[in-house]
């Protein structure tokens, strides 16, 4: 803050001293003027009040916090912030919600179907439904319902959001989400909206949006071979799917109009961790990973988990002091991420991992080991400037690769990574914040307006 260079007088504050000029006869005309009218009797005080208000309003205008703020966009990779600024800009408070959202995306409008509770809110009885790694389906729904882009008039909508939660059926055996019911639940929702509304049939679902925030996205299965065999359900092939799965090569599970979104990480958990240890604090762990690492390449399912990558990590670096590798779960593991320089993000069953978001949010350089992965919002998030990409076949050389990065361009990577706009772009909030993950989804939809029935009708007229 700027320090004021002046002090107000101790008596009656700021005032204007006035003196009336003497008359041409050499005598003061004040007594005569005071006798003539009420105005003259109070002339000094009227002028004093007017001038005081003038100077006070001028001061407020010149010191308004928004002055000279042109709101010019800045590249995510160009600005470095202190830890305090990082937290202030990254936190999800109502003060960060843009006051001019309606000006973005050229009047984009989304209609959200009001489906029966069995399709969404009934699942929230289990608190994990809104906090686990697949919970973007919940967060996006909530954010849209309070967004300025929401419309209650479906005839003015560009897109239609279908809120079906398919990742909240937790298995009683291992506690992981079970999505075997996903296809039938979505099919039921589509049948309902197509019988009650005309909008699905008129566009064959091409302007309808769904979320598939689990392993292989639109194929709705956790095992890749089964997902590929099943393929994308026919009733979704014309629609837009927001999915965490994405690869650069051709793949049956992304042969649909799609947007690659980040996995869900709770903003509250990140904020709590950063309150205790900011991103700029000392990092005493060189390379970190905590998670499932199979001792033997084939797990109980008979499949090769992580294409053997995690097994190789454990075998090669378990005894290496530079690596902090843990196979067991720990509820406070984010406190380990914020202490680490590099965070390993190897593929699991699918290429993506919540570690991508957690690492970025907590200022740890993500080391991505997943060949051909499509990263979320890669048109705005400078992944090449904030992460290290290691080929799966080069896991055996990982130590040398990271040592080289640490000796050469680590500080540049961290400078880009610690820009608070980077994690903001990967985090979902309950309300839309300019630049956050839901805002990026809306931006992606705005670029797909050619699929909007309303827009296409207007352009053809």
Summarize the structure.
The protein has 461 residues and is of the alpha/beta class. Helix content is 33%, strand content 9%.
How many strands, what sense, and barrel or not for the largest sheet?
5 strands, parallel
Structural class: alpha/beta
The chain-level mean pLDDT equals: 83
Order of secondary-structure elements: HHHHEHEHHEHEEHEHEHEHEHEHHHHH
Uncertain spans: 1-40, 58-83, 92-102
User: What gross morphology would you assign?
Assistant: globular
Strand tally:
10
Taking all Cα atoms into account, the compactness measure Rg is 30 Å
Measured distance between first and last alpha carbons:
56 Å
Count of all domains: 2
Percent in helix: 25-40%
Q: How much of the polypeptide forms β-strand, as a percent range?
A: 5-15%
How many helices? The count is 18
Biggest sheet: strands side by side, in what order? 1-2-3-4-5
GO molecular function, one term: glycosyltransferase activity
Protein name: Probable glucuronoxylan glucuronosyltransferase IRX7
Family: Belongs to the glycosyltransferase 47 family.
Pfam families: Exostosin_GT47
Account of the protein in words:
By secondary structure, the protein is α/β, with parallel strands linked by helices. It folds into two domains: 110-264 and 430-459, no CATH class; 267-425, Rossmann fold. The chain has helices spanning 30-36, 38-41, 43-62, 83-90, 136-145, 182-196, 199-203, 224-230, 267-276, 309-317, 334-337, 355-361, 383-386, 398-408, 410-417, 421-424, 437-446, 453-460; strands at residues 110-112, 159-161, 208-212, 240-243, 257-260, 285-290, 323-326, 340-346, 365-369, 388-389. The chain has a five-stranded parallel sheet, with helices on one face. Strands 7-6-8-9-10 form a five-stranded parallel sheet. Helix 5 links the parallel strand 1 and strand 2 (159-161). The two termini are 56 Å apart. The relative contact order is 0.12. Mean pLDDT is 83; it is low at 1-40, 58-83 and 92-102. This is Probable glucuronoxylan glucuronosyltransferase IRX7.
